[in-house]
Write a structure and sequence with these properties.
The structure holds three protein chains of three kinds.
Chain A: E1 40-46, H1 51-67, E2 71-77, H2 80-92, E3 99-102, H3 105-113, H4 126-132, H5 134-138, E4 141-142, E5 145-146, E6 148-161, H6 162-168, H7 177-188, E7 193-195, H8 203-216, H9 219-228, H10 234-247, H11 268-273, E8 277-283, H12 286-293, E9 303-306, E10 321-330, H13 337-345, H14 348-358, E11 361-362, H15 374-385, E12 389-390, H16 393-413, H17 419-432
Parallel strand pairs in A: 1-2, 1-3, 7-8, 10-12
Antiparallel strand pairs in A: 3-10, 4-5, 6-8, 6-9, 6-10, 6-11
Chain B: H1 10-14, H2 41-72, E1 75-76, E2 85-86, H3 90-97, H4 99-130, H5 137-149, H6 152-162, H7 168-175, H8 192-217, H9 221-229, H10 234-262, H11 266-272, H12 285-294, H13 299-332
Antiparallel strand pairs in B: 1-2
Helix pairs in contact in B: 2-13, 4-8, 4-10, 5-8, 6-11, 8-10, 9-10, 10-13, 12-13
Chain C: H1 30-54, H2 59-64, H3 76-82, H4 85-118, H5 124-133, H6 139-152, H7 159-183, H8 187-195, H9 200-211, H10 213-229, H11 232-237, H12 246-256, H13 261-295
Helix pairs in contact in C: 1-13, 3-13, 4-7, 4-10, 5-7, 7-10, 10-13, 12-13
Classes of the chains: A alpha/beta, B mainly alpha, C mainly alpha.
Chain lengths: ~425, ~325, ~300
């Protein structure tokens, strides 16, 4: 279920929501022609392995096949944590799936460099462009060419249980670190862990570091680091120190080192779903994941959302948000029907289905009208109010450096490494690949 | 541990009964194919036909990839297209200087030593106890061997479910009043390595017991009977006679154990996953190879790690063979 | 197993039954022996039984009382797995992979071992050393270039893509075990065959093969178990869920249904069964084979 982190965002830079003109998408109407004659089979890899999300994809594929009788799509659901490795193997071995889940950022850039992704700039229909808007599309482009389509907006923030907050006497959602620390202290008395953390998968722990870095580093520094993997700016160290100070208050659940993010009732999402933890810092796919892990597998009724608080002393904007979009790409050798499918999944009806299946914000503006949960609306508000949006750092930096960064953060939280260790790990990784 | 068996030297194999020059009783054989100097073309053909397929498979799928690993190890390479960024020995330098690798190496060393220390005495003890005629001996042997037969993946999955904080192990401890001992078996960096050793011992001690039992079968009755006649107690007999004669078997088992411990991958990867094994203090050279190589997209680097792993195994194997196994082959080398 | 010729055991056909079980007086520490055996068996089987019985419970049973017996016994998990096509497909894949590997390894191994055991030629030492050195290359070492090789052969995502490497990697063990077995066949037999105008190949066919059956079975079983349990190689080579073997299937199932611990336990224990059944059928041969190999 639930997609993982953002993707399809400009690789060159932490994508910015502001007025960067999107380098004009292709204009002529090239519309997928399904008239290449003869039956076409495509393979499709997505990461929804359970519940309504998987059912959504099954239905969408069936609907597309009905509308395009000579096309067959074989869908495979791959566990999110396995996806990157398997995809890389498949892409490198020439047995790539035709349509696949795309995280964007440096990961997409690596694929583009290897010539493994199809340039679909000209295949996006004008209806799609209009429904998505310039900014969303820009997030899927590298140097003006479109290599994927976003399907949902998934910024990150703190998901919390309103009931547990009330029980602990936390009346307002925290807007500063001090308020968050105060809330943590009160929440410890409820018997549930204040914050759930799925450090076994490494990236959930790293998300904390990313957000501290977002607050601590200016946008320019973030962009520069993305460009040449240079982390010498002191803001990176400050982010680590902020994180360490926060972690020293012991806000996380016990045994977070072997808690996974999304797998099972013992995962961090599961803890939140079963009221064993009060908060989780996570991307906006979390409601869907949580819904599959509640005792009755229905959405958690008291779920709420608030953006990451402001951190004193940083150069980043306190309203900046991190996250982006999940998307899908076509492999370089995919048949033209691939882009037909991509356009199809962005239509209003399918996007509404996406929202229902994943409890996540669809990227299609027309479909956003059906969103009724207040936590999703809160996400949308935070997203729209943000001066800039950064992609997840490990996606920006690519698999090699990204993995090392994530593990470095885990070491810090486990007490095994220190703040400098994070930077060292990143630099060491750069030397290996 | 993979199910690799001992690398016995050719010398020993040559001197197994039946092949010692001069022991082949009977008349000097007429067929010229038996004469040592020069072999006929027909023999050559037979040799080629019989051993050819095996050699081809082996060269193609084992030797060739290993050579390629060495080759790729000299490059920085992302895995697609041909490698172009030649860096010579740089990857190897990076490996040896990387603290993550050094930790993994250390973990491997600990696992090697602890495997021997834990499994050896326990297995010998049980083998000595079980080497007596008891009813159901066959059934006992089957049941002891069961963990060895089960895949490491399955062992890992099952055990990690049992070792969760709210899992069966802690629950049993609580129910028998040892609640104070409940811990985070998997995540605590101080405990994790011991947990790993526990699971490894569980899986492989049965194999050791069976091996030792098999070795004991070869010790003739007469010796222990003679000792009994001389008034030796059961345990004295075991200590003075059985154990020393079990020496060669023990040494072979130790060799297998060492090589297996150096190559350990499946269990650690399944239980701790690809990210936290080093944080938990249980990473091995093999998990390091997969994490820093394939999973990070650094294929050249990963291959270099593989070569390092191979060289370390090779050196240890050769040293072991030279100094430890040599004793066993010494006696047998008699009529060379 | 390596052939360690101990100074006290002579050639195979000589002397008193070398394989006798020690005839101790029964009653000699028997209770102690039984107790020790019981302890050992309990330790070995405890976790296995936990996994098996866990499948008969529901999740809430497990969460509330992690280490108890099923109450009530729930069969739904097992029946669900047993009726799922995925499980049987994976069993099928594993079976094909393991059987093909075993047959090929045994055939190739016996042929090569025969050459090494009974022919004298220059380069014999080198050939033996070649295979022995293969033990130093675990699949972990060769996996990345092996994957590239398999990819270049176009065998990624196919069962032959894992079968061929498995055969190659199982050869060293097989040959090392079989060579002493084949060497132990007395020269007299060979000479007798020669006198009867039996060619070397005929000798191979008619006498060696039947006599080497114990060794062949041992190595066959080891090859089968190794191939059945293999994880790393399929992990790299098989991407498509349809081609998964059982170890991969267990992991995929465990992560997909990790919500449902009981179901995972049911799947896991069903995956153990083929290997256990196979092993119990051939248990005597395995131990017998190991005995013979250690004995030389």
């Amino acid at each position: 279920m639930a997609s993982r982190k953002a993707l399809a965002v400009a690789a060159a830079v932490a994508s910015s929501m502001s007025l960067v003109a999107c380098g004009g998408g292709g204009n002529e109407e090239s519309g997928g022609t399904s008239s290449s004659g003869g039956p076409v089979t495509m393979t499709f890899w997505h990461n929804a392995t359970t519940g309504p999300g998987k059912a959504f994809w099954d239905k969408t594929v069936a609907d597309f096949q009905t509308a395009n009788p000579n096309v067959t799509i074989e869908a495979q659901s791959i566990q999110n944590e396995e996806l990157d490795g398997k995809l890389q193997t498949a892409l490198n071995s020439g047995s790539a799936p035709d349509i696949f889940f795309q995280r964007g950022g440096g990961k997409m850039a690596a694929m583009v460099e290897a010539g493994q992704v199809k340039d679909i700039t000209d295949a996006i229909t004008p209806e799609t462009k209009q429904a998505l808007g310039e900014a969303a599309l820009a997030s899927a482009q590298i140097e003006g060419k479109t290599y994927s389509v976003p399907v949902s907006i998934l910024p990150g923030g703190l998901w919390y249980s309103k009931d547990l907050f009330k029980k602990a006497g936390v009346d307002a959602t925290p807007t500063t670190m001090d308020e968050l620390n105060a809330a943590v202290t009160k929440l410890k008395d409820t018997g549930a862990a204040p914050i759930a953390l799925g450090a076994k998968d490494a990236w959930p722990a790293a998300h904390w570091y990313y957000f501290f870095a977002l607050r601590s580093c200016s946008k320019a520094t973030l962009d520069a680091a993305a460009a040449d993997k240079n982390f010498s700016d002191p803001c990176w160290t400050k982010a680590g120190e902020d994180l360490k100070a926060f972690a020293d208050t012991k806000p996380f659940n016990e045994g977070f080192l072997t808690t996974s993010a999304q797998q099972g009732a013992g995962s961090s999402a599961g803890l939140l779903a079963n009221h064993k933890a009060s908060m989780e810092l996570m991307g906006a796919w979390n409601p869907g994941v949580i819904a599959s892990l509640t005792p009755d597998t229905k959405p958690l009724p008291d779920l709420g959302f608030f953006p990451f608080p402001a951190v004193p002393g940083g150069q980043g904007d306190p309203a900046a948000i991190m996250g982006g979009t999940d998307g899908y790409s076509c492999s370089a050798d995919a048949p033209p029907q691939c882009s037909d499918f991509l356009n199809f999944i962005l239509t209003k009806d399918v996007q509404e289905g996406y929202y229902k299946g994943f409890q996540a914000l669809p990227v299609n503006k027309e479909a956003q009208g059906v969103v009724k949960e207040d936590y999703l609306k809160a996400v949308l508000d935070a997203y729209n109010a943000a001066p800039y949006v950064s992609l997840w750092l490990d996606t920006i930096y690519g698999q090699n450096v990204g993995n090392a960064l994530n593990v470095g953060v885990v070491n810090l939280l486990a007490g095994k490494g220190d703040v400098a260790g994070i930077i060292e790990a990143v630099n060491a990784a750069a030397a290996k690949g | 541990m993979s199910s690799n068996f001992g690398a016995e030297t050719l010398a020993v194999a040559e001197n197994a009964p039946g092949n010692r020059p001069g022991t082949g009783g009977g008349a000097q054989a007429p067929p010229p194919s038996r004469s040592r100097p020069g072999i006929g073309w027909r023999q050559r053909l037979e040799i080629a036909l019989l051993s050819g397929p095996a050699i081809i498979m082996f060269l193609a799928f084992v030797i060739f990839p290993v050579l390629m690993a060495a080759y790729y190890g000299f490059y920085r390479w992302k895995g697609f297209g041909p490698p172009t960024n030649f860096v010579g020995l740089q990857n190897y330098v990076t490996i040896l200087q990387d603290s993550l690798f050094q930790e993994a190496l250390w973990h491997n060393a600990v696992i090697v030593v602890l495997s021997l220390v834990f499994q050896g005495p326990i297995a010998i003890g049980f083998a000595l106890l079980l080497n007596q005629k008891v009813r159901g001996q066959s059934l006992i042997r089957v049941l002891i061997f069961v963990p060895y037969v089960i895949a490491e993946v399955i062992v890992g999955t099952g055990w990690s479910l049992m070792l969760q904080t709210n899992g069966a192990v802690n629950a049993v401890l609580r129910s028998i009043g040892l609640g104070a001992l409940t811990s985070d078996w998997l995540a605590n960096p101080d405990l994790a390595i011991w947990t790993l050793m526990l699971i490894l011992t569980w899986k492989y001690v049965g194999f050791a017991v069976i091996l030792f039992l098999a070795g004991m079968q070869n010790i003739p009755e007469e010796l222990s009977e003679a000792a009994a006649v001389d008034g030796a107690s059961y345990w004295q007999t075991q200590w003075r006679i059985t154990l020393p004669l079990l020496g060669p078997t023990i040494r072979i088992w130790a060799f297998l154990s060492i090589i297996g411990a150096l190559q350990l991958f499946d269990l650690v990867y399944i239980i701790w996953g690809q990210y936290v094994s080093s944080t938990a203090g249980v990473s091995t050279m093999a998990t390091y190879m997969v994490t820093e190589g394939r999973n990070a997209g650094n294929y050249g680097y990963g291959n270099a790690v593989a070569v390092v792993l191979f060289l370390i195994s090779m050196v240890i194997a050769l040293v072991y063979q030279r100094f430890v196994l040599r004793r066993d082959t010494q006696g047998a080398l008699g009529g060379r | 197993m390596a052939a360690i010729a101990e100074s006290t055991s002579g050639p195979v056909t000589a002397s008193a039954p070398p394989r006798g079980k020690p005839r101790k007086d029964s009653g000699r520490g028997s209770p102690v022996v039984y107790f020790a055996a019981l302890v050992l068996i309990a330790l070995m089987l405890g976790p296995v039984l936990y996994i098996i019985t866990g499948g008969f419970r529901t999740n809430s049973q497990i969460t509330s009382n992690p280490a108890a017996l099923p109450n009530p016994w729930v069969f739904a998990n097992y029946t669900e797995v047993l009726t799922s096509s995925t499980f049987w497909r994976q069993v099928g894949n594993s079976t094909i992979s393991a059987l093909a590997t075993t047959i090929a390894v045994v055939v190739l191994g016996v042929m090569a071992s025969y050459v090494l055991a009974r022919y004298q030629f220059r380069g014999r030492g080198a050939m033996y050393a070649l295979f022995a050195a293969g033990l130093m290359f675990p699949i972990t070492v060769a996996i990345t270039p092996l994957y590239i090789l398999v990819k270049n052969l176009g065998l990624v995502n196919t069962l032959p893509g894992i079968i061929l490497p498995q055969i190659a990697f199982a050869l060293p063990t097989t040959i090392i075990i079989l060579v002493p077995f084949l060497q132990a066949i007395p020269k007299e037999l060979e000479e007798a065959a020669a006198i009867d105008r039996c060619s070397r190949l005929g000798f191979f066919w008619r006498m060696v093969l039947p006599l080497s059956v114990p060794g062949v079975i041992t190595t066959g079983i080891l090859a089968f178990i190794g191939a059945w349990n293999s994880y790393l190689l399929p992990l790299f080579i098989l991407n498509d869920q349809d081609t998964f073997t059982l170890p991969l299937g267990v992991q995929a199932f465990a992560s997909q249904y990790s919500v449902d611990t009981a179901k995972v336990l049911a799947f896991t224990s069903l995956s153990m069964i083929p290997a256990l059944v196979f092993f119990s059928l051939f248990e005597r041969r395995i131990v017998g084979g190991l005995t013979g190999a250690v004995k030389g």
